[in-house]
């Protein structure tokens, strides 16, 4: 079936169908004449995708749904996420109405601030949100996104509270660092839903790597070496050079500022998840560095030391 007929049946535009194909959601057969031949299964899948988009489900989530062997489980998880977002919006609405009803009273504002912070401290949202609010010029967003997969624990002990205070005092005392615009813009375009999906994917991938069998680790080594060799291609270098420059800049900044002596140890106190992740990562990095001879060069690119 040709694309014009598919458009008539599904109500989708050619560009939408082409986009879903580029995203890997559908894979029509290409005929000998170069035209794409869409099957009944492709049409059924396009109708399903169209429904998900009408329900404001992201492309990343749709990819997970259509490739899953248990779609009900995935959709129930999406429903739970939507319920949480709805609850959050209701709470925000309540606080805004309180602010209006109390006629912007100074004492009321102070009490509402304190109440919101206490709620966030108890549900694990405080650190990742306060990091951005306390340091809004760029570094806060960078650190919040960087540590976000592991900032899910409540601030519920004196030890954690003191660790958080030490982090705040440290970040407030170091010189400001400019985060490149292309990185800040990427943060601006990430919704809470997208960030959660990214966090889950990162944690799943790293946990698979940490618990990999000998054969799985060998496959990863081959993949890693292949990536290192391909990074010198002109097309990839053009894309990655700004990232390498920022990575070098921020690594030098962190090394000289006390980041590794103050922020990292206290982050381990705030999050047992991060502590476990960091320890596993150091062990894996040491193993790979020793076995493959990989290291960072002066431009913060991963290279193989052939000495």
What does this structure look like?
The N and C termini lie far apart (58 Å). The chain has 307 residues and is mainly alpha-helical. The chain has 15 helices and four strands. The mean pLDDT is 87. A hairpin with a 5-residue loop joins β3 and β4. The chain is 73% helix and 3% strand. α4 (59-67) packs antiparallel against α5, α7 (126-134) runs antiparallel to α8 (139-147) and α9 runs antiparallel to α14 (259-270). The strands form two sheets. A two-stranded antiparallel ribbon has the order 1-2. Strands 3-4 form a two-stranded antiparallel sheet.
Write the layout of secondary structure elements.
Blueprint lengths: L2 H8 L3 H9 L6 E2 L5 E2 L2 H15 L4 H9 L3 H31 L4 H18 L2 H9 L4 H9 L10 H16 L7 H8 L3 H19 L3 H17 L3 H24 L1 H12 L1 H21 L1 E3 L5 E3 L3
Antiparallel strand pairs: 1-2, 3-4
């Amino acid at each position: 079936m040709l694309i014009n007929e598919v458009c008539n049946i599904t109500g989708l535009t050619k560009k939408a169908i082409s986009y879903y194909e580029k995203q890997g959601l559908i894979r029509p057969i290409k005929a000998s004449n170069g035209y794409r031949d869409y099957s009944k299964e492709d049409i059924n899948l396009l109708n399903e995708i169209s429904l998900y988009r009408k329900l404001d489900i992201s492309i990343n989530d749709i990819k997970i749904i259509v490739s899953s062997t248990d779609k009900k489980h995935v959709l129930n998880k999406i429903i739970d996420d939507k319920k949480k977002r709805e609850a959050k919006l209701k709470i925000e609405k309540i606080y805004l109405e309180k602010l209006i009803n109390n006629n912007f009273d100074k004492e009321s504002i102070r009490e509402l601030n304190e109440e919101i912070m206490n709620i966030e401290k108890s549900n694990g949202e405080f650190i990742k949100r306060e990091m951005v609010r306390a340091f809004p010029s760029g570094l806060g967003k960078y650190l919040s996104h960087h540590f976000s997969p592991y900032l899910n624990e409540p601030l519920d002990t004196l030890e954690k509270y003191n660790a958080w205070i030490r982090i705040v005092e440290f970040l407030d005392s170091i010189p400001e660092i400019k985060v490149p615009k292309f990185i800040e813009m990427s943060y601006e375009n990430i919704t809470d839903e997208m960030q959660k999906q990214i966090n889950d994917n990162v944690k799943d991938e790293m946990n698979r790597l940490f618990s990999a069998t000998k054969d799985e680790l060998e496959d990863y080594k081959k993949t890693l070496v292949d990536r290192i060799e391909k990074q010198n291609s002109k097309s990839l270098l053009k894309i990655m050079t700004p990232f390498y420059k920022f990575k070098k800049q921020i690594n030098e900044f962190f090394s000289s500022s006390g980041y590794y002596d103050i922020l990292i140890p206290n982050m381990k106190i705030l999050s047992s998840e991060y502590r476990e992740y960091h320890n596993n990562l150091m062990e894996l990095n040491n193993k790979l560095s020793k076995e493959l001879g990989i290291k960072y060069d002066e431009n913060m690119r991963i290279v193989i030391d052939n000495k």
